Amino acid sequence: MKKKTTAVLALAGAVATSLMALAPTASAADGCQRDWLTTGHGGTYSVIQKSGSGCHDVQVTQAWASGGASGDAYRAQYVNASGYWTWASRPYVWISNGTYPVNQYILISDLTTGRWFGVSAQNTYGSAVEVAH
């Protein structure tokens, strides 16, 4: 009986491990909508509305600074409840050119669905960021 129990437990462990290996990772199945925005210098250039996807935050997943720069500092603005553009509470954050996982560079936390937002670059004009939101 001990051999059967051991064999059943080993089989159950192997099945559980296989299922865990097949489970999607947060970066592959995070439910976030992704859009590219052109940044302004010290203000936004292109803007978009916060999606109703599974993401609660606005976060940079790719960054490409213009003019041959290796990166830039980015900060977000959004339209507040009174209808005015305001800076997000997070300060400018340096992001090197590249691709990043969700939750590494959060610019706005818990933005309401439908609110307009954009991203500003501190040092360059016309850079591009992909945001998950």
Number of beta-strand segments: 11
Which range best describes the helical content: under 10%, 10-25%, 25-40%, 40-55%, 55-70% or over 70%?
10-25%
Main sheet makeup: 6 strands, mixed
Average pLDDT score = 83
What fraction strand? 35-45%
Radius of gyration: 21 Å
So what's the overall shape? globular
The number of helical segments is 1
Q: Which runs of at least 5 residues are low in confidence (pLDDT < 50)? A: 2-28
Helix and strand pattern: HEEEEEEEEEEE
Distance between the termini: 54 Å
Structural class: alpha+beta
State the main characteristics.
single chain; 133 residues; alpha+beta; six-stranded mixed beta sheet; five-stranded antiparallel beta sheet; 1 helix; 11 strands; 16% helix; 38% strand; disordered N terminus
List the helices and strands and how they pair.
Blueprint: H1 2-22, E1 34-38, E2 40-41, E3 47-49, E4 58-64, E5 71-79, E6 85-87, E7 93-96, E8 98-99, E9 105-108, E10 116-121, E11 128-132
Parallel strand pairs: 2-10
Antiparallel strand pairs: 1-11, 3-10, 4-8, 4-9, 4-11, 5-6, 5-7, 5-10
Structure, explained:
This protein is α+β, with helices and mostly antiparallel strands and 133 residues long. 16% of the residues lie in helices and 38% in strands. The protein contains one helix and eleven strands; from the N terminus they run αβββββββββββ. The chain has one helix at residues 2-22; strands spanning 34-38, 40-41, 47-49, 58-64, 71-79, 85-87, 93-96, 98-99, 105-108, 116-121, 128-132. Strands 2, 3, 5, 6, 7 and 10 form a six-stranded mixed β-sheet that branches. Strands 1, 4, 8, 9 and 11 form a five-stranded antiparallel β-sheet that branches. β5 and β6 (85-87) form a beta hairpin. It starts with a helix and ends with a strand. The model is unreliable at 2-28 (pLDDT under 50).
